[in-house]
Amino acid sequence: YSPYGCGLYLSVILEPEGSLQESLVLTAEAAVAVYKAVKELTGKELDIKWVNDLYYRNKKVCGILTEAVTDLKVGTLSLRL
To answer: What is the pLDDT of residues 11-37, one digit of tens each?
Structure first.
């Protein structure tokens, strides 16, 4: 539900390349990047709740979803963040 004039809603899809080991920290890195960007642009500090949700004054302002798709036949992993 998105009431008119009450929020900014968007999705950003990134498909990073790298190893499985590197992918394990992508969600946390994205949360820290959002935290830093918000602080730099607005001066407001957010709280990060277990790597994928960011809160301001106990209200969720951002959620980060990371998906991984594996192909067991060829041993590949593709990620979406």
So the answer is: 888 877 777 777 778 889 999 999 999
Q: What are phi and psi of 68, to 5 degrees?
A: -130, 135
Largest CA distance in the chain: 48
Please name the residue that has the structure tokens 């730099």. 40
Q: Say which residue the tokens 């968007």 belong to.
A: 10
Q: Which residues contact 64 (CB under 8 A, 6 or more apart)?
A: 27, 30, 31, 34, 51, 52, 53, 54, 81
Higher pLDDT, 77 or 65: 65
Burial 5-44 (b: 16+ CB within 10 A, else e): eeeeeeeeeeeeeeeeeebeebbeebbeebbeebeeeeee
DSSP 65: -
